[in-house]
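Can anyone check this?
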Amino acid sequence: VRKGNMTTLVEDGKEIATGKYNISAVFSPDSQKLAVLVNDGKNAARVIIDGVSGKTYDYVSDLLFSPDSKRFAYIARTQNKKIVVLDGQENEIQEDKLYETNASGLTFSPDSKQFAYVAGTYRNSYVVLDGERLNKDKKFGSVRALVFSPDSKQFAYSAEIVNTLLVSSTFERYLVVNGEVRELPYKELYDRVYIPVFSSDGTKIAYRLQKGNRELVVVNGVEGKDYDKAWDSIFSPDGKHVAYVAQQAHQYFVVVDGAEGKHYINIQSSYVPSVLDQRYDLLFSPDSKKYAYLA
């Protein structure tokens, strides 16, 4: 609600926060807590949870509750320092002397016990898991897609290193699983590894791969058939089957365990801003024996 030059946040008819500029809010998954980001002007941003105001920073972003709603994190900046605030405790990101330092990708494990994020610069990015920097011997140019397995026992992300030469560049791409760095044989400019996906028991991992102008899905290191376009895969609840949507010559179809289904002119999907891509309405039955989609 805008009143004069002030903005007020109203929850269930009660005014709970007021600021000079933007106000945004996010509910916890259990709907019992409300985190409010209040911007009171230049260099004056703060977070209010259950009516209790936190410390004021120059800038605040990426408010995130844990799945069990008991933990809370966000990114802050003050006096040119980047900080990840977790459960009220500040974790300062070490500054680089040459390049701007950032933090991103705040991620809780499904059981809410683990917390990870990406930090560093565009030339030296790294992952912090439960306060510990991983793979200190690697200077990744970029890190993407932090993901935990559904049982919270496995952790993975994709990364790359760009080696810039006088007239060209070379590329090294990696999949990091539980701290183990696996170099992938995809070194061309337009190669890209997308978000990894774990099976429910954490024993299998799949990821979508762009290889030149073709795309395919890799399951436990085994490449599937390449298509004009492929999308992120899903595992059945028992972890025994994997399925995804693919496109070839303007025809869409579902691929289950490597077998193509009937071709259609379209399969229903929705755009997901967080991953800048389509997500298809493809699902398995609870007993893993059936799958369904709209076409």
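Reply from J.R.: I decoded it. The mean pLDDT is 83.
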